[in-house]
Amino acid sequence: MSEHDPQLAAAADIRARIDTSKPHSARFWNYFVGGKDHYEIDRETGDHIKDIFPGLVDVARTSRQFLGRAVRHLAGEQGIRQFLDIGTGLPTADNTHEVAQRVAPDSRIVYVDSDPLVLAHARALLTSTPEGRTAYLDADLYAPEEILKAAEGTLDLSRPVALMILNTLGHVADHDRARDLVDRLMAGLPSGSYLVISDSTSTSAGMIAASEAYNSSGAVPYYVRSVDEIAAFFDGLELAEPGVVQVTQWRPESDDAADATAVDAYGAVGRKP
């Protein structure tokens, strides 16, 4: 490629946007789930927070398991074939498209994230079965209408879509604003669509202390919420059993039995009437 090649220029722009002087939530979370895409600052912060609250590692791991169970439920039992995953994070094992297409090879998935390191690794998310399709949008949660418009290049928004927002809404400081963003996204999806949310919760002193330590590290802050605030995201939707519960308690499977412990993270799946 020549030095004027647009792909080379785009790659250089992505690298320039990666700040390795401050921890970042996507890299921090990747460290906790056993990934390899993190820097020394992320590991230092992660180790410090593990000293304060070791349970955060369990939150990271079991939240990932919740994602898999929710996707298998929607693809396998509810016939959902379209997924819009916002706040994708860094690729690890069993990403949304891998889980969905394992159940239903014709599933279509659109990933959305604005983190430059996630963008740099997006090719790992763009594999697909021949019958299905995956796409990646470099877009911001704060622009829901733009996300929906761009997603139409891959998804048919006249048919049900599962909106996935996992471990992401905590970055929105104001709860009312976070609810508004979720409502605007769901407003653009048809009846029969689903909302899947999980987030860390302020349900123990340890988690609150971990959140405060993370927020003082220089990273983009992440605010833990009450269980009632998590439940409020599902107002107007029909909750799938067992409702808003700890992620370990949402339809646990035999493989997850060893992790069916109490964690400071709650999630749910709701259907748009």
TrEMBL record:
GO molecular function ontology, one term from the record: methyltransferase activity
User: Has UniProt tagged this entry with the keyword Methyltransferase?
Assistant: yes
Query: Which UniProt keywords are given for this protein, alphabetically ordered?
Result: Methyltransferase, Transferase
State whether keyword Transferase applies: yes
The enzyme's E.C. designation: 2.1.1.-
GO BP term, pick one? methylation
Its protein name is SAM-dependent methyltransferase
Source organism: Streptomyces kurssanovii
For this protein's source organism, the top of the classification is:
Bacteria, Bacillati, Actinomycetota, Actinomycetes, Kitasatosporales
